[in-house]
Amino acid sequence: MRNTHFVLVILAAGWTHLSADETKEPKLLPSEKLAGDGVWVMPTSRGQGNLRVNVWFDEQFLGDGKAYARRAEEFAGAKRRELRASVIKTLKSLSDKSYAAAKADLDKLQADRKILNFERHWIVNGFRGTIAADQIDLLKKVPGVKKIFIAGRAFNRSPANAGKAPHFPALEGNKFDPSQYQYPWYVRYLQADKVWQKFGATGRGTLNVVHDFNFVFSDNVTANLYRRKGEIPDNGKDDDGNGLIDDYHGYNFDLRSPNLTMRDVPRGMLQPQLMHGYTCAAVICGSGAKGHEYQFGIAPEASWTGVIGSQRLEAAIQWAVEQGADTYSMSFSIPNLGEYRSHWRKIMEHGSFCGVYFVSGAGNFAQRVPIPLQMRVPEDIPNAVFAAAGVQRNFSRTPLSSKGPVKWETEHYKDGTVQKPAVCARRGDGRRRCVELCCRHERPRFGRRCCQQRRRVRSNPCPRIKIRDRCQPNANRRVIENHA
Fold first, then answer.
1. 3-state helix vs strand vs coil in the chain, percent to 5
2. What Å distances lie between residue 278 and 220, 272, 284, CA to CA?
3. 2-17+178-483 is a CATH 3.40.50.200 domain
4. In this structure, are residues 163 and 261 in contact, taking their beta carbons and an 8 Å threshold?
5. Which site in 82, 206, 236, 412 is 20 to 30 Å from 200, CA atoms measured?
6. Distance from C-alpha of 387 to C-alpha of 390, rounded to nearest angstrom
7. Residue 276 CA: distances (Å) to CA of 11, 228, 273
């Protein structure tokens, strides 16, 4: 099951109380300039017509393609939550500064209808919009513009599907009892139930964002749905003034609507594609329900929220960051993005410095796509995205599960060959037999040799992130990678 990549990752990104460090006033951090002369424009074979573009300004929190590793060293001693607040403040400040310098030119382009659907974003300092292919050079004249990415052809999306905004009242006094339910094999094999009992780490105080394309709801997952403070559900108003109406349980950024159920599934029917978002949420933090035999969640007291936003990724990530998200699940895979991969990667890198752990499956393309193309976006993104291969009950890799390494040779990122996925199953040929899941399972047959071997494979962080984060909510990424 692909969604077991979360394992104990979700269990504890933090306590519900604020530490003394979190009460400190966030500070502005140094920024970096994108190097090079002129404005780079992503090559495209899209031809004529309107194109969707994402534009970077020349000043970013992370500058060149090596900036993530460099600045990770710079902030190696920083606490996650304290750093998050400062990075958010810095990103928003950079956006305001660059936009102020470019505003007059951008306003004119909009007034002349040269650029449509204009939208600023701060998770990467820049903006997005729609522009005719033969008008892209106009963007090169905007002050501060440094890189122009082509997201694809423009399309007319239908108006927001009003539907009905989800609203599930909170249940009072529903205390978690690990003896109340039976559990599926992955909970038992990962010994999550023992972690609940021994350490009290059940995910309480964590927020897990599930990015998918449809959500159906049942009482297995509604008890611990996120409920945004300051927002009154289903009243058709933006109560908290963040620009979104009824974003109480989550938001559909593509349709600018709180409706997360694009197509419902009648009770008693099984439609895996339409139920994929629900399945992810259930595996991550399904809490069980009265009258049900099984509880499916690895982190049954964690909160979760759903987002739909494949066409407005920046807005979805920004919302998640501002909600204080701890993990961001992306159980999807997008091929053939070319240079546009760099834009996705920069979003994830900045989001990672905002304290979010991005998690993805490795993909299911091992039997029909050659290496290094089996892993696509977002799972091929180094460092900022934890990608996990599918693991069977005997801890071997599932035959469909995509394998690395991946290759990064874009205009902005020159890593070359990168070892992925971050978590993988043991190989039958005896090489790299260590499985982080096996080590942490601590069954005698794997023994100390496996754990020693795991330490040598530095590119494979175990998906135990949240079990450590439960006790150390401010642990930085180095701690997570070295000890997970």
1. 30, 15, 55
2. 9, 9, 10
3. yes
4. yes
5. 82
6. 10
7. 21, 23, 5
Identity at 247, one-letter amino acid code = D
Residue 360 β-bridge partners: 330, 387
Chain CA centroid to CA 482, Å: 21
Residue 327 tokens read as 């993990």
**CA–CA gap between residue 213 and residue 262 (Å, rounded):** 8
**Does residue 69 sit in helix, strand or coil?**
helix
Query: What would the pLDDT profile of 5-46 be if each residue is shown by its tens digit?
Result: 444 444 545 443 444 455 679 999 999 999 999 999 999 876
Torsion region of 7: left, alpha or beta (phi above 0 gives left; psi -120 to 50 gives alpha) = left
Do residues 420 and 387 make contact, with C-beta atoms less than 8 angstroms apart? yes
CA-nearest of 369, 358, 440 to 401 is 369
Task: Name residue, tokens 């995910």.
Answer: 203
pLDDT digits (tens, 9 = 90+) for 338-390: 999 999 999 999 999 999 999 999 999 999 999 999 999 999 999 999 999 98
Alpha helices by DSSP H, 246-376: 276-285, 313-322, 341-353
Paired residues of 330 in beta bridges: 211, 360
Cα gap 204→216, rounded to integer Å: 23
**Cut 0.90: pTM above it:** no
* 372/406 Cα distance (integer angstroms): 5
Q: How far is CA 99 from the centre of its chain?
A: 26
Cα 327-328-331 angle, rounded to 5 deg: 130
| Structure-token pair, residue 397 | 């890799």
Residues 99, 109 contacting (CB under 8 angstroms): no
Q: Are 390 and 397 in contact (CB under 8 A)?
A: yes
List the domain boundaries for the chain. Answer: 2-17+178-483, 21-153
The pLDDT tens digits for 90-137 are 999 999 999 999 999 999 999 999 999 999 999 999 999 999 999 999
Left, alpha or beta for 397 (phi > 0: left; psi -120 to 50: alpha)? Answer: beta
